[in-house]
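Re-running the complex after MR caught last week's input typo. The corrected sequence lines follow. Everything else is unchanged.
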Amino acid sequence: MNLAIALAYLMAAVLFILGLKQLSSPKGARNGNFTAAAGMVIALGATLPLLHFTTAGLVIIGVGVAVGALIGAFGARMVKMTAIPQMVALFNGVGGGAAALVAVSELLTFGTRPPFAEAFPSVFSIVIGSISFAGSMVAFAKLQELMTGTPITYPGQQLVNGLLAALIIGFVVAVLVIASIPFSFVALMVLALILGVAFVLPIGGADMPVVISLLNAFTGLAVAASGFTLNNFALIVAGTLVGASGSLLTKLMSDAMGRSLGNVLFGAFGKVRTGTAAAGGKEARSVRAGSAEDLATLLAYSRRVIIVPGYGLAVAQAQHAVRELADLLENPSRGWKDAGAHERAAG
Amino acid sequence: MSNELLTEVTYFVLAIFVGIEVISKVPTILHTPLMSGTNAIHGIILVGAIVIAAGADSPLTIALGLVAVILATTNVVGGFVVTDRMLEMFKGRAAAPKSTATR
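Corrected-run output:
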């Protein structure tokens, strides 16, 4: 690898890591986004000069970047604030689709018998990227209310999805071991797209953020796999960073809703028969747990804070802690005033 | 295992640990912007899309390259812009206490 490219990719990787670090703290979040964007510009800028372009290649890159930038900027700027979650789903999905197409393109150059070290990551990228693409599109449709946001279930759904997954694994083995069937990975892609749709259908609209986060981690892994295929370090490092942090983030998000990831993803399965019987009864209600860091961040962003003590607070003997918090908040140097909501509840 | 593959696997494993470690302290309120930010970062696939599109010479590779570049660019540009829009909202609210202090 060319020295200049290697150094530029290293710099991009450092900027991505710093960007993630800033993005996860309230103070620097917005700068973190710029830091990561700078990393992206450096990685792209370093890649371009050493490529050998065909005329057609030059044209499609020019047209493709122009069209994509227009769609991306227009879509992100113009949608209403409330429509932002589905835009994230959409932008995640197209990334997964791109990763799958890059892997397909690269696999084509090897003919019918690609070496295992290239074929394995390519096939992985095709499957995971396609699942992410199709799943994200369903998430987008649900949030945009192009289709119903309620879980779509039918008897035997788990079995069907399991069979689909088994079929995909079978095809993966076929492509890797037999490999002489031309375009067998097209079938693989179609199956993965179907699984992506089937996987998100039974999940309700309110759980979509967790699902999008999971698919985001998927896309990261697909990008990393494409990086292995192309022997490109920028793709491997950035993709893996997203895959790893996205996986943890998915867990944190479902934890914050007081549910397990398994419950979010498969909670609707098998509920076809029980239907409404479970509603209201002993069904576990969600508890929102927070840490001191969460509270500090929330308060820092708040204009007014109203503390409503309940019976639980008294049971937990937390009066003094709340009093301390209130004293801190009412401290004139912070600029807050007592809004007049005083303790009335708590028998 | 070739030398290059070995180096790649090393990068891969180290990046997993860095990725987990670097965001482990994120407060709940920043979950969504962080997700959106990481979403923009995997737009790095644009580098891969440009690499495969650059050498396109048959109708099939041209079509694949064009679609890949469009999708990847949408991911990068849309991802960063939408994240910035989200964080813009936070800035507005964080600045608010200062204005009430002068009242």
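None of the earlier attempt is carried over here. Helices of chain B lie at 3-22, 31-41, 45-54, 59-101. The first helix of chain B runs from residue 3 to 22.
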